[in-house]
Amino acid sequence: MRKLILALAATVAFAGSAFAEPVRISVGSYNLNNLPFPVAAGLGLYEKEGLEVTVENFASGGSKTLQALVAGSTDIAVGFYDHTIQMQSQNKAVVGFVQLARNSGLVLAGGKNAAFDPAKPETIKGAKIGITAPGSSSDFFVRYYLQRHSLSADDVSLIGVGSGSAAVAALEQGKVDLLVNYDPAATFIEAKGVGKILIDARSDEGAKEIYGGIYPTAVLYATQAYIDENPETIQKVTNATVKALAWMNTHSAEEIVEKLPKEFISGDRDTYVKAVQNAKPIFSVDGKFSETDTQTPLAVLKSFNEKVAAASIDLSKTYTNAFVDKVTDKTTN
């Protein structure tokens, strides 16, 4: 993992320039929802904006990244949009300013001996379900599914197993019966013959089946205080990231993987390319937030998060399109 951190940091560093502007960006996970960030780094777009990016807390988990942001030990986080809603319920102003993944990207997969049948929701009772971590969006996914089918978290066992190869191994070894995770793990499960996908929220149709709407996930976010004090830095980061999204939309999965540090690629390369291809529909093409879509995670959180349910949430303060709207040139040249 240390090699991975150093590799990505080296990719984004604007080395040797006395005029480079330093910015610390924390990444909570290397699941594919966050892929536009390393793609922007691989294309050298942060460097072209005159930024020297230090990558921190890589793969430490979304909650740890959020803690680092609120504590002031990082400037910008690559994390999930629903964190901004949770923070507002705690009277903390955290704001998304570029949307990376417009949809969930989560799947629920069953191991070879899984007894769960989505057509009969009650068959999930007693299952050991792997999630990335407690309090994560994969945790929310399970809890909301259970609630919608008149079940509760007490009917199952929720086990944090991380993401990527570690999550796939947990399913393969029988440590969990079911697994809720993202690509590349989702693609690896079927490619390795470990199990099969039972519920797929990578598509708009699958997301609507689970959540009742589109569920935005990965975003770039920062505290409102940092945004107010550093609008030029935020704009530069936005410029680079929006250009990366536009580039990804017009290039193949193979070309996208070519731009990544080799250490970033999980498993065999061919399967990873397939995972990127499977995940492509979830990525934003322009970085903008949809007012309608932000309602979905709010509804999900309100269903089981007492603080969010009790708070008067103003969604307009959890995101801004102001910086994305100022990006006029989306070419990477």
TrEMBL record:
GO terms for biological process: alkanesulfonate transmembrane transport. It is found in: Periplasm. SUPFAM superfamilies: Periplasmic binding protein-like II (SSF53850). It comes from the Bacteria. GO terms for cellular component: periplasmic space. Gene3D superfamilies: Periplasmic binding protein-like II (3.40.190.10). The keyword Magnesium does not apply. Keywords: Signal. Pfam families: NMT1_2. Residues 1-20 form the signal peptide. Belongs to the bacterial solute-binding protein SsuA/TauA family. This is NitT/TauT family transport system substrate-binding protein.
